[in-house]
Amino acid sequence: MSEKVLELEHVNAYYRENRQRKQILKDVTFSIYEGDIVGLVGASGSGKSTLCKAVLGLLKEYDGEIRHFTNRPQMVFQDPFRSLNPRKTIGWILEEPLKIHTRLSAKERKEQACKYLEKVHLSGEFYDRYPRELSGGQRQRVSLALALISGAKFILADEPLSALDVTVQAQILQLLKELKDSEGVSYLFVSHDIDVVSMICNRVLFLKDGHITEIEREQGKDANL
Ligand SMILES: Nc1ncnc2c1ncn2[C@@H]1O[C@H](COP(=O)(O)OP(=O)(O)OP(=O)(O)O)[C@@H](O)[C@H]1O
């Protein structure tokens, strides 16, 4: 049996608007296990971002239990250009968590950064480049390398493919699957596109009117992944 990485139990979440309390999530209960790729699907405004904020501990008003069993999750965003510091090189960006959390020397940090670039199939030549010098798909690869080098075992991917064209989408989907196998990461994969979700996710959560319903899928069935 796989280890649990995240558990939500009876989570209700609210926003305040004109002094009124508006409930967005209603009695949301689910778990994510090691090696899971869980899709989170719902119409615009159904509460997907609110659920992500809850998981990341960014919601002010909620009740219920949210338990993490690994390091804090890392986010991969729709537009990684906004999450990668435009003034820093890719090497600097990848080494930052190592500067904060480890005592590695500059040489060792560089080796690690290059190792993680390799894991996402980018060559060492990207080390000295700036985010603006990368394509959307390459930036998404750097975001994944950054999540991994930060020690994430659970990645929250919020519409990670929607800014990419179809060919690049397929490559990033393949990479997500590969990293799940090689690095043992799990994902909560947020999307409004059920086709994309059905290509990669082994479980799908549907969010409607604040409630979650879940279906189990046979993993990678539609995509031969
Ligand atoms: N800070 C806030 N204050 C008040 N209401 C909010 C706030 N943030 C979101 N909402 C409302 O909560 C509901 C859920 O929003 P949320 O952003 O979670 O939806 P979503 O499913 O992520 O939508 P989308 O797919 O369009 O990004 C919406 O009705 C939205 O207007």
UniProtKB/TrEMBL annotation:
Keywords, in A-Z order: ATP-binding, Nucleotide-binding, Transport
Annotated Pfam families: ABC_tran
Transmembrane helix recorded as keyword: no
TM stretches of this protein: none
Gene Ontology biological-process annotations: transmembrane transport
Annotated coiled-coil segments of the chain: none
Gene Ontology MF annotations: ATP binding; ATP hydrolysis activity
Ranges for domain ABC transporter: 6-225
Lineage top rank: taxon: Bacteria
The protein's name in its UniProt record: ABC transporter domain-containing protein
Annotated source species: Mediterraneibacter butyricigenes
